[in-house]
Amino acid sequence: MVLSLPLVGGLVVVAAIFYYITRKENKPKLEGKIPPGPWGLPFIGNILQMDWKFPFMSFVKWAEEYGDIYSARMGSQTVYVISDLKMVKEMFSQEPAFAGRLNPAEGVNDLYTNGQMHGVINTEGRHWEDLRRFTLRQLRDFGFGKSTMEGLIMDELGEILDWMKSKEGLPVRDVKQRMAVAVVNSVWTLVTGKRYKQEDPAILKLTKDFTETMDELSKGAGPGIMLPLLRYVGFKGLTLWRNHLENLKALFSSIVQEHKETYTEGSPRDFVDSFLGEINSCKDEESPFYKDVGNRQLIGVIKDLFEAGSESSSTTLSWIFLYLSTFPEVQKKLQEEIDTVVGNSRHCSLTDRPNLPYTESFISEALRYSSGAPVGAPHRTLTDVTYKGYAFPKHTGIMANQYGIHFSPKIWGDPKNFRPERFLSPDGKTFKKHEALIPFSTGRRQCAGETMARDTLFLYTANICQKFEIKFDPNDPKANPGLKSKPGFILSPQQYTVIFKDRLN
Ligand code: HEM
């Protein structure tokens, strides 16, 4: 049958009316109103109305139109987008019903796990609670937030400084890739007891594949990734993702196998050993550590730590290099502070932090301005819940509009200016935390690696600026692409070219 344009048009109108009526009829029995929001089409919701290059910009634009809480539909999934800081904090901290996880790419991710979600990032309920508690405790005991963690970060940073010295005066384009290997190594040592050489081709390939996969996923599918249908159609990003997951799975399985073969009860060497000990002693069938479930969860957690540990910190570091090159006067101030407080005869350490308020303020401004995860990682409701007069049916997606909050003129006054001073006390001597800066989210699911990430950002920024001046390559007209991010769900800088100049020799 050949479909004419008027017929197709008519079908769309009928479907829209049907959708409108059934949407009204399906209004939950739950008390409370449904937040306002943009009109959507049946099956695909608001996906076609979204900015496909920068999907988060649609969420920001709708917030201006519909207010601090509105609803939208991504395919068949309803999401409420929250732009009010107080509400985000209350919902994510106080109400357990909001602590579920909406995984927009569930259809893609489950290729890895036979239809079930694993690890800390993607699980919910008892499994998530037990795994999160275990992970936080184990990583803390092995050094999270303690001086041993500083040692691990500094070991990697030492190699980065040598690498920068070896590249002195030469154009460098792969800052992010190099940082990714260094930051993942610190996590890797804690988790598996091993580290890669930073120039090891295998680890360089894994981190590069991950970045490329993320780029292709967002480029290839845009918000369409929310449509389950897409996984049957296939596109380049999906193929890359499949390959990447297969490679990771093979790597992590061999690491776990090696640990099993050399495991000694009661003497855990690292995170993997501790997890195996938990599996060995678990008798509770409901537990995430029980037998085969435990083995799969272990791989899931390793994957979470590998990906979360490398990607977000290295992306933020790559923004930091871009800001330092774009705002040389900021870089100069930072270096003057370090020269005065630390000098150049020793490394900057975490104990210098309270005495380096401008450096701390610069990092906070970099986190605000880059807003790498513009709508955080979406949550979903675990039960029906009414909150502030609004009805949240079970499994409603919830996104915190972090970008909107980080760029709110009401909160920041001049959000579009890059101005570290906004985090300083009026006399400029003390760093002041700002409650509206939430790059790590807030509440029960707040980033599990925040302490490590903050330590990494501080030690890398302070020590690199102490030793090197960073500027765009003056011989390359394309060295400075500006501050606009690459298209995608996660905001990362476009490729730029910098040169390093040793300040101390
Ligand atoms: C600059 C660096 C980082 C940023 C901006 C960042 C940001 C975030 C955000 C926004 C979330 C979602 C929180 C929510 O659902 O409300 C998250 C979750 C998470 N992050 Fe990070 N992260 C960073 C580094 C790290 C590192 C270094 C690790 C581990 C070594 C890590 C591990 C995790 C884990 C396991 C979760 C899941 C928490 C849960 O669902 O309970 N992150 N992160």
Automatic annotation (TrEMBL):
* UniProt entry keywords in alphabetical sequence: Heme, Iron, Metal-binding, Monooxygenase, Oxidoreductase
Instruction: State if Nucleotidyltransferase is listed as a keyword.
Output: no
Q: Which cofactor does it need?
A: heme
- Going by the entry's taxonomy, the superkingdom of the source organism is recorded as Eukaryota
Q: Which GO terms describe its biological process?
A: organic acid metabolic process; xenobiotic metabolic process
Q: Does the keyword Zinc-finger apply?
A: no
Q: Which terms in the Gene Ontology molecular function aspect does this entry carry?
A: heme binding; iron ion binding; oxidoreductase activity, acting on paired donors, with incorporation or reduction of molecular oxygen, reduced flavin or flavoprotein as one donor, and incorporation of one atom of oxygen; steroid hydroxylase activity
Q: Which residues bind heme?
A: C447
Q: Which GO terms describe its cellular component?
A: cytoplasm
Record InterPro entries: Cyt_P450 (IPR001128), Cyt_P450_CS (IPR017972), Cyt_P450_E_grp-I (IPR002401), Cyt_P450_sf (IPR036396), Cytochrome_P450_fam2 (IPR050182)
What PANTHER family does this protein's entry cite? CYTOCHROME P450 306A1 (PTHR24300:SF403), CYTOCHROME P450 508A4-RELATED (PTHR24300)
Tell me the protein family, please.
Belongs to the cytochrome P450 family.
Q: Quote the protein name from its UniProt record.
A: Cytochrome P450 2J5
Q: Which organism is it from?
A: Folsomia candida (Springtail)
